[in-house]
Amino acid sequence: MIWEIIISVLLVTGGFFGLVGSYGLVKLPDPMTRLHAPTKAATLGVGATLTASLIWFPTQGGQSTWHELLILLFLFMTAPITGAFIAKAHLHLGWDADELPRPEPDLHWATFAGPENESVLDRKTPDE
Amino acid sequence: MMRRLFPHPWLSVVLVLTWMLLVNRWAVGSLLFALIIGIVVPLMTAPYWPNATGYSRPGRIPAYLAIVIWDIVKANFSVARIVLFTPRSALRPAWITVPLELRRPEAITALAGTITLTPGTVSCDLSEDAHALLVHCLHAPDPDAVLDEIKTRYEARLKEIFE
User: Which one-letter DSSP state was computed for residue B127?
Assistant: First the structure.
């Protein structure tokens, strides 16, 4: 009984944060702020749902499994990487190096480092 | 000899554990295969990270993980509140530069991952010389407070663990 309550609470929490994450994608104004919604709200959303599943199997007479724990770990390890890649791609395409704070007066961020410091879209291919 | 056979002892342990959890059934055969993977994979990947050394204080990792998980839960509530109740016009997104004291790539990766997973911040880029991190804040009326929290709460602890 007590386990059922815990599992229900976790499922509702997971559903709520999943919903907030999706709503954030619609509501927030630009790609950089939109990036925050899925990397945060979705981690707890998926996390709570998987924890509920992790508790359900051993307590409700199923065969206990550890796969949820692995999914959770892999998700938490990969979420920052997808976040950084989307951010870098967005910086490449939509931002100028001058719009960002410089790390040091004479240094660039890695995305803008390079011989020309320009977006890949502006770079001319040899046969042009 | 041990060092040559196990270039990354922690990686070996993690691989054995991961394989056993994936198989999800206790059997000697699975454990044997897990051990083979735990030995062969670090040996084969060792050339790609020649400078990797162990942790100086691995005992502090659980405390760090507990803090990060607690912060992730808190972060979700604050981000949910911002998404649901802060009007677009009141939103104050900000870029902040985090100068790094950490030098090891593993430590910087751990810090960047932590920043992305916690309160309204996403780590976006690294400076050319890898001495600073570019972080985007969803809603930061006071960017210096965010910077201060990253430096004292996460970087100081990672420095203890790694260096």
Answer: B
Tokens of B45: 């990947």
Compute how many other C-beta atoms are within 10 angstroms of the C-beta atom of residue A80: 21
Amino acid identity for residue B120 in this structure = G
**Distance, CA of B38 to CA of B27 (rounded, Å):** 16
Model pLDDT for residues A21-66, shown as the tens digit of each residue: 888 888 888 888 888 877 776 678 888 899 898 888 888 777 777 8
Beta-carbon separation of A36 and B122 below 8 A? yes
Please tell me the distance from the alpha carbon of residue B162 to that of residue B160, in angstroms, as a whole number: 6
Mutate which of A33, A64, A76, A107 to disrupt the B interface (most B C-beta within 10 Å)?
A: A33
Domain boundaries, chain B: 2-48, 58-162
Query: What is the model's pTM?
Result: 0.81
Q: In what order do the strands lie in the sheet with B94-99?
A: B94-99, B132-137, B121-126
* Range(s) of the domain holding residue A40: 2-94
**Domain with residues B58-162, CATH architecture:** 2-Layer Sandwich (3.30)
**Has residue A120 been placed in a domain?**
no
Hey, which residues does B135 pair with through a beta bridge?
B96, B123
Residues of A in contact with B95 (CB under 8 A): 100-101
